[in-house]
Write a structure and sequence with these properties.
With 80 residues, the protein is α+β, with helices and mostly antiparallel strands. The protein has one domain: Barwin-like endoglucanases, CATH 2.40.40. The protein has 3 helices and 6 strands, in the order ααβαβββββ. It is globular. The chain starts with a helix and ends with a strand.
Amino acid sequence: MFQELAPRPYVAPGIREHAPERYLEISEDLAQELNLQSGRWVHSTSRYGSLKIKVLVTKQVFGKQVYLVLFSPTEGRPIS
């Protein structure tokens, strides 16, 4: 089942209820350095564009890294 759903993000049963909005996952180290807490709004900018998004401080990301799923739950399609 996982292999069937893996190429199509956000189609797994119950995923919209579990994660109804996008967020920027940020490591605990970087959050501490930037004085950020989960739920705070930030502006994130890259060479591809920028967006305003909520932060989620997590142990799933390490060092000075961030993670953003490139899929829009509101539009139902990839944003990349």
